[in-house]
């Protein structure tokens, strides 16, 4: 039994949907994100759906699936590379050739050897990115097409084009005396490929949580202000750390004229924050941090920068999933860590580093609904189809979109994450396993 099932069984249903104990195929075919932290978010009608998984995979035991995946991988050899994000279930991580954060996985997709297929165990925007960066002819496969991201779905190309037109009408397009354009678009990696392409077309860039500061520096050299989408919290936390006052970060709500801000606020803005958020990280609170400090004097609190600003301010450190892992791996003395990120990763860190006491800030936090949809049944299916000479669940970004998205992604890959005291530690994460 995995840790999430344990969590579900030990907590009342109100805290986390009990349906998590079911296979994702029980809810993949219905609209929505399924049980987990984003259960209440509204999935757009265009969100990819997953067709029915053959019964032999739905009905196999964990041990049978593990054996089938291992056998398929042996049969395929170097024809396939499996990439996995840190939030994946342990049963998936066990089969990954490379495990990393979203920056590292984008980099890996570009540099993997000449495998015919990259099986991406993560979410849809990550697979799209891999397809844009992979070598020509390499197929990128997402084992479950319903593994989206509710935050990524909070910005769509029509809303961003509309916002851009309103901002251009307000600012014009003339650079200032220093040659900086009025506004530059920055999209978080957690966005659809057409939004990355939008950034490529408009002189903008993609960021991840690990290089957001480097990316904003890059953008401020070229522009008077930034339109940052879709995650308001990453944008706010990063800009605040760089000294941008909160009052110069108006919000853009795509359902309101001028995003719900005044023209004056937008003229004074340094960063315009899209009204998007992650339902996993939104659950963390300052109260949880206060309780952790009271119960564990000396606790080291580390959160992901997708958490709301008061939570990041109250924590000791904030950083990407790779930062969090390196912080734990680099601690030389037994330490108590309270971590504000997805439960699968926190549980894995706790098992991997028994010399430390590691717990999730929110003891009843739900997993990311969509990361959790990559089940071993789907992984076994896509691999066995490859063995049989069939490619299923390929994620393909159209050529014209990919060309513009690649421009913004290449800029992102050149904007390296800043070294920190903890990331300077042993290179234990993101390493080829
Ligand atoms: P990382 O870039 O830190 O891996 O984060 C990706 C993500 O989706 C976090 O919710
Ligand atoms: Fe998206 Fe949040 Fe899940 Fe990350 S944790 S993939 S931002 S829903």
From TrEMBL:
Entry superkingdom: Bacteria
Record's keyword terms, sorted: 4Fe-4S, Cytoplasm, Iron, Iron-sulfur, Metal-binding, Pyridine nucleotide biosynthesis, Transferase
Gene Ontology molecular functions: 4 iron, 4 sulfur cluster binding; metal ion binding; quinolinate synthetase A activity
GO biological process assignments: 'de novo' NAD+ biosynthetic process from L-aspartate
Cofactor(s) essential for the protein: [4Fe-4S] cluster
Chain residues that bind iminosuccinate: 85, 102, 188-190, 209, 304-306, 321
Entry note: cofactor: Binds 1 [4Fe-4S] cluster per subunit.
Transmembrane segments: none
Region (Disordered): 36-59, 414-433
Protein name: Quinolinate synthase
InterPro entries cross-referenced by the UniProt entry: NadA, NadA_sf, Quinolinate_synth_A_type3
GO cellular component: cytosol
Biochemical pathway: Cofactor biosynthesis; NAD(+) biosynthesis; quinolinate from iminoaspartate: step 1/1
Binding annotation for [4Fe-4S] cluster: 149, 278, 368
Compartments, record wording: Cytoplasm
Sequence similarity: Belongs to the quinolinate synthase family. Type 3 subfamily.
Pfam families xref list: NadA
Organism: Xylanimonas ulmi
EC code(s) of this entry: 2.5.1.72
Annotated catalysed reactions: iminosuccinate + dihydroxyacetone phosphate = quinolinate + phosphate + 2 H2O + H(+)
Functional description taken from the UniProt entry: Catalyzes the condensation of iminoaspartate with dihydroxyacetone phosphate to form quinolinate.
